[in-house]
Design goal:
Keywords: Disulfide bond, Glycoprotein, Heparin-binding, Repeat, Secreted, Signal, Sushi. This is Beta-2-glycoprotein 1. It is found in: Secreted. Binds to various kinds of negatively charged substances such as heparin, phospholipids, and dextran sulfate. May prevent activation of the intrinsic blood coagulation cascade by binding to phospholipids on the surface of damaged cells. The structure is a single chain. By secondary structure, this protein is mostly beta strands. It has 5 domains: about 80 residues, Complement Module, domain 1 (Ribbon); about 45 residues, Complement Module, domain 1 (Ribbon); about 50 residues, Complement Module, domain 1 (Ribbon); about 60 residues, Ribbon (Complement Module, domain 1); about 70 residues, Complement Module, domain 1. Helices cover about 0% and strands about 40% of the residues. The strands form 13 sheets. Strands 30-29-31-32 form a 4-stranded antiparallel sheet, with no helix packed on it. Strand 10 and strand 11 form a beta hairpin.
Length: about 350
């Protein structure tokens, strides 16, 4: 409704009056559904006014009229216009890699990764733009490459497979060898890694060990007082009835030290005066054990009596570096029983 102020001239007098005119209802700015827009920006619209609808950037119309009209009732006519997001093309399969996505519509994101041993050239992500294209082209997954493996001084390299040119692929391994008398210090194997470089290169160095020392109650195959080269060996032996325990020989190692030396273990005396023993599968009277000794780690059994059952049984014991413990159950017979009644000894009666 509009009010008009009118000026009326009647003779010498001037009168002011208000003229009121009644009009139909107006339409307010329309409330539009998501992804739809219009160019009309005013607050009120008179009946009969028309608005052209369009889809927002990145969306495309599906169906329905694209115009609404302000009716005399002050309401806008209905529209079924729908706008759906634009689609980008499906990404091509990434050679030597993987592409991950949920949708391929406007504002969707895709992610690219390369397989192990390959490095990406280009962007790892892309966004679907309003014009239906991806924000960046598909990347490439190129194999990781190292140069030729470095060769240490006085050394040489053996590749696990034949190579061509000056490039090597990720995962390729090499073996290092040194020219005599040099030896490898470090890992003799190396590999082309994911960052395009080789693992640590070993060193070729001359290694010697000092003259080895003899062992107690033993002897060496060489008594030369000189430096010994890497992997030279010296053998050991033991005197008399002593037994060598450990490796028969020692070797000069790459750290300049000898491997662990053996030792000579002493024989044992069987500490009983009267009785019969079981040794190496045979029963032997103690006086017949000549000489009275068993070697290191030999097993000897003495006989004990089970008095309740009146039977005998053998109990083993082992010689350990000169010591042979006699089991507590052993009872040494008297000289009389041993000489005149030996058939009553535990070794001679029925066994339990």
């Amino acid at each position: 409704m509009e009010r008009v102020l009118a000026l009326v001239l009647l003779g010498p007098f001037v009168f002011f009056t208000t003229v009121t005119s009644q009009e139909d209802n107006v339409c307010f700015r329309p409330v539009l559904t998501a992804n739809i827009e219009t160019d009309g920006l005013q607050r009120f619209f008179n009946p009969g006014a028309e608005l052209i609808l369009s889809c927002k950037q990145g969306y495309t119309p599906v169906f329905g009229p694209r115009k609404i009209v302000c009716a005399a009732s002050g309401e806008w006519t209905k529209t079924k216009l729908m706008c759906k997001p634009k689609r980008c093309p499906y990404p091509e399969p990434l050679s030597n890699g993987e592409t991950y996505y949920e949708e391929i519509v406007f504002q969707s994101v895709i992610n690219h990764t390369c397989d192990e041993g390959y490095i990406m050239t280009g962007s790892s992500t892309a966004v679907c733009l309003a014009n239906g294209t991806w924000s960046s082209p598909e990347p490439e997954c190129k194999p990781v490459s190292c140069g030729l493996a470095p060769i240490p001084q006085f050394g040489m390299i053996i590749y696990d497979k034949r190579i061509r040119g000056n490039a090597t692929d990720y995962g390729l391994r090499v073996t290092y060898k040194c020219l005599p008398p040099h030896v490898i210090i470090g890992n003799a194997r190396a590999m082309c890694t994911l960052n395009g470089s080789w693992t640590k290169t070993p060193e070729c160095r001359v290694v010697t060990c000092p003259a080895p020392e003899n062992i107690d109650r033993g002897y060496m195959s060489s008594n030369e007082q000189r430096d010994y080269d890497y992997q030279e060996t010296v053998k050991y032996g033991c005197d008399g009835d002593y037994v060598l325990e450990g490796s028969l020989q020692i070797v000069c190692q790459q750290n300049g030290n000898w491997s662990e030396k053996p030792s000579c273990k002493a024989p044992c005396r069987v500490g009983i005066q009267r009785g019969r023993i079981l040794y190496k599968g045979k029963q032997i009277w103690i006086e017949d054990l000549q000489p009275d000794r068993v070697l290191h780690k030999d097993i000897v059994s003495v006989y004990c009596m089970e008095k309740a059952k009146e039977c005998g049984y053998a109990v083993p014991t082992q010689c350990m570096d000169g010591e042979l413990k006699i089991p507590e159950c052993f009872e040494q017979p008297s000289n009389y029983v041993y000489t005149f009644n030996s058939s009553s000894l535990p070794s001679e009666i029925a066994h339990c």
